């Protein structure tokens, strides 16, 4: 190890000597490496930004949740024919809540179109009646000063409403909305909260920003013929998703007398599936971008190798001298590999610094529009740093190894003769 | 016996012509001998030096250096033997231009895996021996020819080699510097160092205690000088 350190000191000196000797060539090559690194880091960071936006969008509806709709049986069971409609009733939601320990939260969801008026503004919007768990499940978070519906709202059938942020704007403009009242189908409701803006790419029955949410109990008392349109639940942990689903079918199957194996008896959308797909797609995109960047860097690596071949040729005599003094193959090769790595690392650091600067610059640019929601936030991550370092290291070592191997194949007797 | 060569042949196969550079050399060199190998250019003396210094292996024959059979060893083993047994002094000095005198002298110890502190101490001691204590941190370009050759001699000696193998050591020096180097060889000889010197300069060869003449790849004369 100590001799490696001494070798390193010599390599550094050699590097400086080479630098003055062939400054232009080395400069160009290190620039090529920096450029390649820049393209790798930027492409990967854009990929990372895209991945985060996409998964944030997919999570906008809720993290790992599943939505359950009424369905129809496809098999006969216990003397009952197939094709029988299976509804979701209030009490089913209660039952599932108490019988399925693998679920962390369950909420019923009633829904219908309703007319909302505030002052002279009239907006037709989707109105839904839900349980307090719905807020957590569906990532409905209030802007500061407001709140989502709570247990008391449910038990007292309060006339309170939580508004989507766009719906609130449509009704009230930009003024403070919490504490004001809105007429929903001619009943007066108090606004308790307005939703925070969020990116939402998956949805059923429209984006949350245009919807009004009231307690399920209030909903039922206003629209007495209402039936739940669906229920929403989340497993305790993502890996319990399949257990929760199976238990749901078992509990509902016993209640409504259908085969728990009959998937279509209930309509179910398990969003974990989507999230898996999104993850795979974005991973694919990142690998693709990484390969493009890697190829760019490879060109720089060839430049390094090219220089190192020239350097080996120039130093043939010196290599011979070292061999005469007893340097083994490894000891002859090491300096060349180090020198190539050094060139690569310097270029790579410059490229990384440059790309971090660019990423910082892009993040402060006022980019507006839907497309920029996805590509406008290139993000550097430790994984990208590791990948870049790995690629740079591999290319640098490769670019040094092959010239070094040629150096080690020098015949000392021959090289010492060439004056 | 320090050096034992038996029936050494070296054939260079250039593709269409075979060059028989050495045609069967028998050579014994004893400890503390000071041998000059002389001959005109093309006589095979450079080839002999390469073989003696383990820079190359013979096509046929047997070579035992300090009890170790050299023929047939791989490159790394040969490097080890050069490192331990041979101290080279070249006509053109062959110092690394970007390293200081001290670092140049340290090189054989570096390749031999000697620890940094000991390396530095031994290299410095050796430079003092060749009267270059005040030039340790100079680069070769800041030294005169004679000084460079003395650095090279310090480098050759630093690993206490079995033999010093010198190839026209005064060839690139003016006569004054040359005399200095020759004096240094005399001192080494007096202290018991085995020296083999390749030269075409009969005057230089006359200073050795044994002169081996080569012509056309064969030893034609082997004279022990009168003491």
Helix content of chain A: 55-70%
Oligomer, anyone?
heterodimer
Distance between the termini of chain B: 20 Å
- Count every beta strand of chain B, where a strand is a DSSP E run of 2 or more residues: 10
How many individual domains of chain B?
Answer: 1
Instruction: Report the CATH topology name of chain B.
Output: Rossmann fold
* Radius of gyration based on Cα positions of chain A: 33 Å
Q: What characteristic shape of chain B results from the CA principal axes?
A: globular
Order of helices and strands of chain A: HHEEHEEHHEHEEEHEHEHHHHHH
Separation of the first and last Cα atoms of chain A: 34 Å
Q: What class, by secondary structure content of chain A?
A: alpha+beta
- Helix count from the secondary structure assignment of chain A: 14
The main pleated sheet of chain B reads as: 6 strands, mixed
The percentage helix of chain B is 25-40%
- Series of secondary-structure elements of chain B, N-terminal to C-terminal: EEEHEEHEHHHEHEHEE
pLDDT averaged over residues of chain B: 91
Based on CA atoms alone, the radius of gyration of chain B comes out at 17 Å
The chain-level mean pLDDT of chain A equals 89
